[in-house]
Amino acid sequence: MEIWINPACSKCRSALTLLDAEGADYTVRRYLDDVPTEDEIRDVLDRLGLEPWDITRTQETVAKELGLKEWARDAGSRERWITALAEHPKLIQRPIITADDGTAVVARTEEAVRDALSRES
């Protein structure tokens, strides 16, 4: 399993603490330093079963500068959103855990982290 984190994020630190407490085998990806490609974002979205606007932090300063709240949220705009997430990784909701079973979760709660742990073989 891999977890995308921002070390400054309290939700990320809580998720890591829980993973450690459960003895989970995971890899940390500091996605602000190791920025996901557009293809990696598409893959994570597929694994999450979500659209890019569902994992976008619209309150970030850059989101306001880009005017994201006014962007269309439809199939025709999907690639524009993905490009924005790749160019501005701070916009990506965190933490995201990709499980070995091919699924992923946005792990902002203890329940979501435990859900990801339950998907491990």
Automatic annotation (TrEMBL):
Task: Give the record's keywords alphabetically.
Answer: Oxidoreductase
GO MF annotations in UniProt = arsenate reductase (glutaredoxin) activity
What InterPro entries does the record point to? Arsenate_reductase, Arsenate_reductase-like, Thioredoxin-like_sf
Q: Which family does it belong to?
A: Belongs to the ArsC family.
The protein, known as:
Arsenate reductase
> Origin organism of this chain?
Streptomyces regalis
